[in-house]
Design brief:
The protein is elongated, with a radius of gyration of 41 Å. The protein has helices spanning 2-22, 29-39, 41-64, 120-187, 193-228, 249-262, 264-284, 332-398, 404-439, and strands spanning 25-27, 67-76, 82-86, 96-100, 105-118, 236-238, 290-303, 314-324. 66% of the residues lie in helices and 14% in strands. The chain is built from nine helices and eight strands. The strands form three sheets. It has a four-stranded antiparallel sheet. The longest helix is centred in the middle third of the chain and has 68 residues, at 120-187. By secondary structure, it is an alpha+beta fold. The protein has two domains: 26-65 and 119-289 and 330-451, Outer membrane efflux proteins (OEP) (Up-down Bundle), CATH 1.20.1600; 68-117 and 290-324, Outer membrane efflux proteins (OEP) (Single Sheet), CATH 2.20.200.
């Protein structure tokens, strides 16, 4: 008995554990954006670019800081070199006397210091590296905005698919209820077999639509999972409604005039022009001299035996200034200056082209936003009228004053009106998200402090 009880408890715990593991994760739109900020691979790659840009800034600063080098060397002479001198004891003999020089053991340590006092390339490079870091940050912000828009679009698509699924299920239920009414009326001899066939066909025609809507919803949820960067095997449940938050009219009016001030893609390209201009200055700086200060401190000894003590070491030191100026390099510097000037002109053309495309895209988004808002208002009235018409025709059908064809037409009109309304809502929400991207508006839940 006890064994049976133990097996029952273990089985119950196992079932509950499996159920907990397979339960879907409830995700709201704010949750989806927050998860994407943490897990989206493209966004993480852009974040790494920011880190690399910061490292390059540190590298550029390092060229202007002092450099210190410490080197040491021990030498063991296997056979010491000789130096040849005349035989001073017998000047007229013409003999040459070999004299060994050096020692069997020598040890030396040298400390070298160098500080650049003037180098145009180094100083320009420091400024260019700082601008490059700002470019990386703007590109990261642009990637954030793009990710948010992608996530919102995928999330709204899932909500649209769910609304469509609910509509097809409701239509199927209405058709099934209508079929039941037809069966009752036919049993009373009020309706013909033809009416029953039309009602049956209407039900069977809706079943594939429900199946297709279920498939579309599943695929749209997969799209949300992919957009936010979750694993393919992690189940999620999209939570929320397609609620419209009207965009402020003043924002819509001012958007064409102010969006370039806050658009991070445009700002990144502007700074890229500045970076290329700094590269021109850096190449031109090669015409200027380099001045640096240096110092050397040496600690050394030499001895024929290995019995070396600290008293055997001697020190020497020196300081000085170094000046260098390139007089001719085969016109290489001039060619590099011309190349960087071409890069400046290319980046300016890209900036102009991007500005043009952004303006066109913003105009299209604002047009879609206004049109979707008008469609929402119009479709809301249409849905109310279609619902009223469906109630009237079903009542008349039950009293024998309407035909099955009129019921089917009313049901189709109501479904189409609701589909048009949710499609307009979807278009409005997507356009609002795109407008936020153009204006550089991140959700309040997205932190920007990590890049400051």
């Amino acid at each position: 008995m006890n064994r049976l009880l133990l097996l029952t408890v273990v089985a119950a715990l196992t079932v509950s554990s499996v159920a907990a593991q397979t339960s879907a994760r409830r995700v709201t739109i704010d949750d989806a954006v927050r998860i994407a900020m943490e897990k989206n691979s493209d966004l993480q790659a852009a974040r790494f670019e920011v880190d690399r840009a910061d490292a390059r800034v540190q590298e550029a600063i390092g060229y202007a800081l002092p450099s210190l080098d410490l080197s040491g060397r021990y030498t063991r002479s296997l056979k010491r070199p000789v130096f040849f001198l005349p035989d001073f004891a017998n000047p007229g003999s013409g003999k040459i006397m070999p004299v060994q020089i050096g020692s069997n053991h020598s040890v030396d340590m040298t400390l070298n210091a160098r500080q650049i006092l003037f180098n145009g390339t180094v100083f320009v490079g420091m400024g260019a590296a700082g601008i490059y870091a700002d470019v990386a940050r703007d590109l990261y912000r642009a990637r954030q905005l793009e990710t948010v828009t992608t996530v919102k679009r995928a999330f709204y698509r899932a909500l649209l698919a769910r609304e469509a699924l609910d509509l097809t299920r409701t239509s199927l239920k209405n058709a099934e209820d209508n079929l039941k009414n037809v069966d009752l009326l036919r049993a009373q001899g009020v309706l013909s077999e033809y009416d029953h066939l039309r009602a049956s066909v209407a039900v069977e025609n809706l079943r594939p639509a429900v199946i297709q809507s279920e498939t579309n919803y599943t695929l749209s949820v997969d799209g949300v999972r992919s957009a936010i960067g979750l694993g393919a095997l992690e189940p999620i449940d999209v939570v929320g409604q397609m609620q419209i938050e009207p965009v402020d009219d003043s924002l819509i009016v001012s958007a064409p005039q102010r969006f370039l001030e806050t658009n991070h893609t445009y700002a990144a390209l502007q700074k890229q022009v500045e970076v290329n201009e700094a590269f021109v200055m850096a190449e031109r700086a090669n015409y200027l001299p380099t001045i640096s200060a240096f110092g050397t401190y040496q600690y050394q000894t030499a001895k024929n035996t290995f019995n070396i003590s600290t008293s055997d070491f001697f020190t020497s030191s020196q300081v000085g200034l170094q000046f260098s100026l390139s007089l001719f390099q085969g016109l290489q510097t001039n060619a590099r200056v011309q190349q960087t000037q071409v890069d400046v002109r290319k980046s300016q053309e890209q900036l102009t082209n991007v500005e043009r495309n952004l303006r066109i895209g913003l105009t299209s988004t604002l047009g879609n936003l206004k049109a979707a808002r008008q469609r929402i208002d119009a479709q809301q009235r249409t849905v109310e009228q279609a619902e009223r018409g469906y109630k009237i025709v079903t009542t008349c059908f039950l009293s024998g004053a309407a035909t099955q064809l009129e019921v089917n037409d009313a049901e189709l009109a109501l479904t189409q009106a609701k589909v048009n309304r949710i499609q307009a809502q979807y278009d409005y929400l997507v356009a609002a998200a795109e407008l936020d991207q153009y204006l550089g508006r991140l959700p309040a839940s997205v932190s920007t402090e990590d890049l400051d």
